[in-house]
Design a protein that fits this description.
Length: 276
């Protein structure tokens, strides 16, 4: 039995293709970072920064277009500062400056749409809530500020960060994950994204004893939020998968190939040589 240090992404990878998991975590052949992974890391970072510095109250009485412009200015400043760290704090994953600039401009689009949604949400919130109301600050906090950001959880050697948790109007907790990739299926979660959310819910439950009400992914590329209700059966379901992985040894034969069309794009294709 292996006491693998697991994470949601490792478990998801195992469920997608056990051989890929083997190459990555048993043979330790790591896939290099890509433009998409670096962009994803930066996007997460700047959203976290926004909620640390922003005072949403100051947008009271403003039209959503003005709020949108202010939020975008702040976020783009964060983005450009973070982007400059590529090559020092982040791997330089771009072929040349042109490619880096193209990615940066596209990421600004993601940022702008995020700001637009938040600005419009705020505008509608302020229509019904004003600072004279004694619940104004509480409601503003509940609706716009995360309960936690980048919360690190380590339970039974399963560890990872939950991007955001939110209060669901006093009824419980919701989990939010951000992705800069697109929704594989419009308006829905594919199996691997759903599994990832279930693992986050499991981790949160193991840490706090509270089962999240729901978990969602915000897809910054399309601006969609897709959520799934978390059921009590999730805990047993995730536990079963973890047990299955931990029961394995290090022999390659225990990690079969899962051959699909996606093998053509797999980093390990050359050593794996899947029979298509
Ligand atoms: S090439 Fe296919 S079967 Fe081989 S590791 Fe990659 S995804 Fe798995």
């Amino acid at each position: 039995m292996q006491d693998f240090k697991l994470s949601p992404s490792k478990i998801v990878l195992h469920e997608k293709c056990e051989r890929k998991f083997y190459y990555s975590y048993i043979e330790n052949i790591k896939e290099p970072n890509t433009a998409s992974t670096i962009r994803g890391t930066i996007f997460h970072k700047i959203i976290e920064e926004l909620y640390k510095v922003i005072d949403f109250k100051k947008f009271y009485g403003k039209h959503w277009k003005n709020t949108y412009e202010s939020l975008t200015q702040i976020m783009n400043t964060f983005l450009e500062l973070e982007w400059k760290k590529i090559g020092s704090e982040y791997d330089n994953v771009f072929e040349n400056e042109k490619e880096s600039n193209e990615y940066l401009e596209e990421t600004k689009d993601f940022v702008e749409f995020y700001c637009l949604k938040e600005a419009y949400r705020l505008y509608n919130f302020f229509k019904k809530n004003n600072p004279e109301n004694k619940w104004f600050n509480t409601n503003l906090k509940k609706e716009f500020l995360p309960k936690s950001s980048e919360e690190y959880i380590n339970v039974n050697n399963l560890h990872g960060y939950i991007d955001k948790t939110i209060n669901v109007f006093g009824k419980g907790v919701g989990i939010v994950d951000y992705k800069t990739s697109r929704t594989p299926i419009p308006h829905a979660l594919d199996e691997s994204h759903l599994l990832q959310l279930k693992i986050y819910a499991y981790m949160y439950y193991k840490k706090t004893g509270e089962l999240p009400l729901h978990a969602s992914i915000y897809y910054s590329r399309t601006g969609e939020s897709v959520f799934s209700k978390i059921e009590k059966t999730t805990i047993a379901e995730v536990e079963k998968i973890i047990k299955k992985i931990r029961q394995k040894h290090k022999e390659k034969k225990e990690y079969p190939q899962h051959v699909t069309k996606l093998c053509d794009y797999c980093y390990y294709n050359n050593i794996c040589k899947p029979a298509q």
